Amino acid sequence: MTPDLDERAAAILRANDRGGYTVPTAGLYPYQWNWDSGLAALGFAQFDLDRAWRELETLAEAAWPNGMWPHIVFRADDPDYFPGPSVWDAGGEAAFPSSGVSQPPVAISMARLLYERDPEFGRPRLAALMPKLLAWRDWFRRDRAGHGGAILITHPWESGRDNAPDWDAALANVSAEGVGPYTRRDTAHVDPAMRPTRAEYDRYIALVSWGRAAGWDTGRIAREGPFAVADPATTFILMRADRDLMALAEALGEAEAARRIAADLDRAGDAAAALWSDALGAYVARDERTGRQADCISSAAFLAWYGGMRDPNREGRLMTTLRAVLQAAPRALPSLDPRDPRFDARRYWRGPVWAFINWMVARGLAEAGHHAEAARLRADTRALIEGAGFCEYFDPTDGSGAGGREFSWTAAVWLAWASPAHEEG
Ligand code: GLC
What we know:
globular, mainly alpha, 19 helices, 4% strand, 3-stranded antiparallel β-sheet, Glycosyltransferase
């Protein structure tokens, strides 16, 4: 029905290809970003499986000796981006300079999708990648385990949901004193009203300075750093990654790895319990330092099904909450409940719709049998892209596009799911 959009989506991925790795969009994000790359692999898999594997391989090349896959890989210096490699000063012993934090491990689950598209083709690629996939999930469980085993982020950027209100209280406790003058580059590319505020940015930079002074000792940063918050999205995405990796380990006959992962998954209920808010009927972030839960309903809560949570009481209430959020949003899924006074339709992770979050939430919903809600998310995603193009994210109130244009993950999610070419939903 819309082959031109299918073609445009593929053309965007090709245009954002920098030779084995894909940038999220030209200009605003000129490097390889971790979860963006996972999703780019998903997009490439729809028309070039070899290139899709290559995306995961280049990302894995930047893995640190401690197992972490960093959130930005600096293969080439670009003065148009801040904070760049010299500010982070990280990844010294790895193959490439990088940032000093990670991002939700979407890429692990993409390895399973790629493998299952063609197991014979994928087997040697997977076997070569497996040690690094396992080391990364082990790193999360070792260096990022919080209360109940929920997964901590040590910088808002580590969540991938930079300015979500989930972090407001914890970020307010981070001192921005001593942050010297710097020039933001993001606001030169897009309207500052769509980006994090100056006060938030100062604290982001303060946290980078703290990590750098700690020599990017990732375990110590989680234990002692000024910011450690359990993130429902990272927790659920890692649970999903673990399930997918367990299946892959079994496919390769790696029984010991499969057992190790299964033991962690047995404790998934404790992590979910640590994040559950009875007051809000949703999973919320939890400040590891104060023990306080965040007071907002973000789209992250609805990744519970994607993560495999199936508690009839809790997920029943979560569904009631989801329906209320869907009802309040002309176009779903908003990153923050529109009934929240902090809701801001165009400011990044404080309101806008993100197509790839819709895809993950809808996958989980469909797997749990909630087909009507999954279909709503798909229909909305399709309409948003048809109406506004392949934008970074969308305004849930009027459907307009915002942030960067010609965005890799929006193109990928179109090709893999939102396009009418996919009948299965
Ligand atoms: C922003 C987003 C993050 C993404 C990056 C590149 O920082 O919040 O999720 O990975 O841009 O697209």
